[in-house]
What we know:
The complex is a heterodimer.
Chain A (H helix, E strand, L loop, with lengths): L4 H28 L16 H6 L5 H32 L4 H13 L2 H12 L4 H8 L13 H25 L3 H9 L4 H29 L3 H6 L7 H10 L4 H29 L1
Helix pairs in contact in A: 1-12, 3-7, 3-9, 3-11, 4-7, 5-7, 7-9, 8-9, 9-12, 11-12
Chain B lengths: L1 H24 L17 H7 L2 H34 L5 H13 L2 H14 L6 H24 L5 H8 L4 H30 L2 H6 L7 H9 L5 H24 L4
Helix pairs in contact in B: 2-11, 3-6, 3-8, 3-10, 4-6, 6-8, 7-8, 8-11, 10-11
Amino acid sequence: MNRYRPWLLLAPFLIFDLLLVLAPLSTVVWQSLHIVSPDYEMLPGLTLANYKRALDPAYLPALSRSFLYAGTSTFLALLLGYPLAYFIALKAGRYRSTLLVLLMLPFWTSYLVRTYAWMTLLQTEGVINGLLLKLHLIEQPLHMLNTSGAVILGLTYCFLPFATLPIYVALEGLDTRLLEAAEDLGANAWQTFRSVIWPLSLPGVVAGGILSFVPAVGDFVSADILGGPDDHMIGNVIQQQYLGSFNWPFGSALSMLMIVLMGLAMMVYVKTEERGE
Amino acid sequence: MKRLLSLHAFLVYGFLYAPIAVLVLFSFNRDSRNVRWSGFTLDWYFKLFNNVPLQRALWTSLKVGLLATFIASVLGTLAALALTRYQFKGRSAVTALVFLPMAVPEIVMGTSLLTFFVSLGFGLNFWTVVASHIAFCVGYTTATIRSRLQGTSFVYEEAAADLGATPWQTFWLVTLPRIWPGILSGAMLAFTLSFDDFVVTFFTAGIGSGTLPLKIYSMVKFGVTPEVNAISTIALSVTLAVLFLYQKLQPKD
């Protein structure tokens, strides 16, 4: 009886997961290996034609742009997030839990709404331009919306809490006696940071990097709302294949390619961080 | 050094909150452009109250959120109990399965569900949205409840069994009350994820089953208006209300 009980408890979860996660993901793999007829019927016979087409120069810019934008915004999020996590974990004292809640709060709110908020700020007739004009810092309103900078800004903004929290968790568990020991042994602040704090916080940096990089690569909302026509990321191309061109097998192949490249990028990233240690 | 760090923290929090603050502020602005403050008004909210499709979208969002949360919480509770109470072959494989949806980019979750539903011949409707939301919520509820259960001992269950309680009685009278806070935090996470989800719903909703984020998106595509600011403020308020409720319900430890 006891041998079956865990499986009995797991059965509802497993059935749902099989039906709603594994089966759909397998459908994507299966579909990516087929081509469609001009009237969108899936043709029999397995082929790699979609993958060949996905690597076509026509689609490479969107693909490389995705990794460039996601990489840049992840880097910026870590750059902004690390000192913040350090401050909350080690210097904030009694404000620690308040600051932590304030950091988590945006995570709970709608990603779409937060991206829209930037749209209202960046538009030519927006608050930022209005303010700059009023202060006579500029004479003409700046063109900020529909640029690649706006897309990267949007991604950085939305994934900043994702990058910061794991670093906080790593630093929060830091044994403060190690810092005292380093000080006793005559290390200055920079040496303590470089040889004690940084190596111990590295797992947090890796986790934070992955947590912001993965959703950023596959994102299409930021480029859609804040970017111009030349800022399309692979997510926009996939969305277009599904809801515009109705070539689902090709969209599937693009999705698979994105996931594989993402996996490779993360492996390289984890390896370099490990070497940095 | 500490001065510099506090200044940095101050600026980052400003960066995080200023856009949201401006968004909310301008939902009360009389001027129809989001540039200059020209007086307080509730007009944009009154306009929303007369917008029937919008109300329907909000209602759909709430229904989807509640249904998906309930089912994902039940499934997650059972799975988390199995994963923390029993040693069995295949446990690590099941754990990997729990985390799989979190590792898959949202857009692929959406397109894969769309492909799956259509290849089975299902039309997209309210229930395809609910099913899709369960699909991405169940990993989060299981993981949350599981992390709460790890490290709690099961001596009370053993005591109940020794005293002659049936497994069913033990579950309702002993286990459930003890793990309730964990279930609640999993459920709350699921609700906010479902309520705010745009990407997966974008691919799996049919005509008439659009949720609030879809409605917001279609309005955003026409540009910035105080009306969109007002709905966004309402969406933010719902999420914050859930968080507040959760804080109130949480036992102090």
